[in-house]
């Protein structure tokens, strides 16, 4: 198989991608990866972009929406493709078994490039395939991936391309990444045609995954700034009076603005943000409850439990049982 130095370079040659889709991946991430390529073929009038879908056991992969995605076979069927893309979502630590990680490590040198979508970066990291590279992952996992794999430079970007490795934070960034691939190989004109087909606009790689709240035109700019401060300081929440003072407002005026824009108080809104973050962490990680509490701005596991029960009418431990 003829291989070029990078798949992100001008070329009229066909390109074959293999998608390793793990159970509990998102159908939107699969579609965001494949449909831009399908649309590019339509505009080119040829099957220039080709793909094959494989799964860990060769069987259909159950996705988060309940649909099962058919596969051409197991990982071995990916051989012959120029690039391998791992798409993973929830429970990657369970579905990416030790034998699969070993097979990934063994087969990696046979591909020109290897990528990961969403939790696919975790899978590649566990296989040692991102060591010494820059990479990204879904914004909820940025801190954990960086802590677990200090040999990787983890960035909060939408997608990252570093030599023979590429990663994207989720479904929308995956589409941006594919549009970049199409532009790299066939020019900006084709990429714009593909983007127009989906009524979208490609976003830069370095743009943060989460759009700053300050850009939300539906909110009063002062409320947007207050929310942005709260989101940036979940582990060390500021008092509403301090936030108001930073914005040059009185606490009463800030509360009035929150009620007008969000139908709640600043304190209640901030608590909701912290509890939502705690709920994600409890559900998606194995961090001790005490650690979750500290990372979400609660003084102890018991204070988190009380607030959690008041909000969701169940203890946080029930999510793990």
Overall description:
The protein is α/β, with parallel strands linked by helices and 321 residues long. The chain has 2 domains: 15-197, Class I glutamine amidotransferase (GATase) domain (Rossmann fold, 3-Layer(aba) Sandwich); 213-320, Arc Repressor Mutant, subunit A (Orthogonal Bundle), CATH 1.10.10. 45% of the residues lie in helices and 13% in strands. It has 14 helices and 10 strands. The strands form 3 sheets. It has a 6-stranded mixed β-sheet with strand order 2-1-5-6-10-9, sandwiched between helices. A two-stranded antiparallel ribbon has the order 3-4. A hairpin with a 2-residue loop joins strand 9 (159-162) and strand 10 (165-168). Helix 6 (171-186) runs antiparallel to helix 7 and helix 11 (266-284) crosses helix 13 (301-312). The model has no long low-confidence stretch (mean pLDDT 94).
């Amino acid at each position: 198989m003829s291989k070029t130095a990078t798949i992100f370079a001008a070329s009229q040659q066909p390109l074959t991608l293999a998608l390793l889709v793990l159970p509990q991946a998102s159908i939107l991430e699969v579609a965001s990866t494949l449909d831009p390529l399908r649309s590019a073929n339509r505009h080119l009038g040829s099957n220039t972009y080709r793909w094959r879908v494989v799964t860990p056991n060769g069987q259909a992969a159950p996705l988060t929406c309940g649909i099962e995605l058919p596969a051409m076979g197991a990982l071995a069927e990916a051989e012959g493709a120029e690039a391998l893309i791992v798409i993973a979502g929830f429970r990657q630590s369970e579905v990416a078994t030790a034998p699969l990680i070993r097979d990934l490590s063994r087969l990696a040198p046979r591909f020109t490039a290897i990528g990961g979508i969403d939790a696919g970066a975790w899978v590649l990291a566990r296989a040692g395939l991102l060591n010494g590279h820059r990479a990204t992952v879904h914004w909820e996992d940025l801190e954990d991936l960086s802590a677990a794999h200090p040999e990787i430079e983890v960035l909060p970007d939408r997608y990252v391309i570093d030599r023979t490795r590429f990663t994207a934070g989720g479904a929308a960034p995956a589409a941006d990444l594919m549009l970049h691939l199409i532009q790299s190989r066939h020019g900006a004109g084709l990429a714009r045609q593909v983007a127009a087909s989906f009524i979208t606009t490609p976003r830069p790689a370095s743009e943060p995954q989460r759009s700053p709240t300050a850009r939300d035109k539906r909110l009063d700019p002062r409320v947007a700034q207050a929310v942005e401060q709260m989101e940036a300081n979940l582990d060390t929440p500021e008092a509403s009076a301090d936030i108001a003072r930073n914005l040059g407002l009185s606490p009463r005026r800030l509360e009035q603005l929150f009620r007008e824009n969000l139908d709640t108080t600043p304190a209640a809104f901030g608590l909701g943000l912290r509890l939502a973050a705690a709920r994600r962490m409890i559900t998606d990680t194995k961090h001790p409850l005490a650690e979750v509490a500290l990372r979400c701005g609660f003084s102890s596991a018991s204070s988190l439990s009380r607030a959690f029960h008041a909000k969701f009418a169940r203890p946080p431990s029930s999510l793990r049982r």
